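agent> fetching stored inputs for the coproporphyrinogen III docking request
agent> found them:
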Amino acid sequence: MRSTHPLVAHDTASSRLVRALRGERQEATPVWFMRQAGRSLPEYRALRATGGDMLDACLDPAMASEITMQPVRRHGVDAAVFFSDIVVPLKLVGLDVEIVAGRGPVFAEPVRTAEQIARLVAIDPALVTERGEAVAEAVRQTTAMLAEESERRGEPLPLIGFAGAPFTLAAYLVEGGPSKDHLGARSLLHADPAAWHDLTHWLAEVTGRFLALQVEAGASAGQLFDSWAGAVAPADYRRAVLPSSAAALGPVRALGLDVPLIHFGVGTGEILADMASIGVDALGVDYRVPLDVARARIDLDLTLQGNLDPALLFAPADVRAAAVHDVLTAGLAARAHVFNLGHGVPMDTDPQVLTDLVRTVHDWRAS
Ligand code: CP3
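agent> prediction call returned; pasting tokens
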């Protein structure tokens, strides 16, 4: 282990989050939220109103690090999750992509035909690393701010880096934008398996380098987001999706830093055992499958992460408290548990509800 990496230099290896991911059950369950940084926070909206579009904000180190810190300071969560987006590495290699508010990533040119795919995969994925200095600098500024915040809190605070899995990226790229059932990507996988293979393995290298960039610059954990993997039939998932997801972890493994890794998707009840099989430390489960049921569906003794239905953020406090108790109780079936929502924080969430939720999770004990 490199002594300058925060796992050692800031002792994030002994943080609640990293210990739990590595399999040590913590007295107080660690908690963070997917999309904890973002439009649910007035301080985020104020900062973003100062100008620039979403992807430019991601590549502005001062802005990205400050946004990453906002939910850590406000909610008292156990980790920061790097403010960026899954399509940032595609912008870095030169694709014309923007995030359209209220919709999501939109590409100027969809990549569908064998010819378009051949042109795309001719782009060198090493460009992500070569042009990623703003990402690395944002990570360095964030870990320095986390070290200061750790002093105040009296415990180490890790940064979670992330990347989109190839299927989820392909779901946007093939359609040219968001779609309901990702029919474009799912059709291509059957219509032209060779082109699909080339596309997803190129994406694995591109997105894998994005994750490695964050880990090398100081992230103490990493999450592979395959948000839309649940759209694929299980046999197709195993054959045509999982191999490129496993490949996406190659660049981060090659660093030899041994950071814990999490694999997450939505609607993945039928493929949890497959998702667990690619050498990760933790499996992120959405809200449709209780954690004890998820545990029974996988052969490996991994840490489980999840999985309060985000809809409960809008329920009366007593109803939410009962649901949180159920999630934490089901989480006892795993070797260790990291509390999260079953998907991202909705934009109209009352931030105070999240702050209170962190306290409830930390105070809970198995009885
Ligand atoms: O979780 C975090 O707080 C870290 C930052 C983060 C963002 N996007 C910030 C963001 C992470 C981890 C992501 C990942 C991401 N991006 C995923 C996988 C996770 C998931 O939610 O399933 C996906 C599918 C995307 C693509 C994407 N980017 C979508 C669908 C959207 C929403 C578009 C909208 O306006 O509703 C984005 C934009 C985005 N990414 C925002 C944020 C804070 C909102 C941007 C804004 O301020 O307008």
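agent> quick read of the result: The domain at 6-284 is CATH 3.20.20.210 (TIM Barrel).
agent> awaiting further instructions
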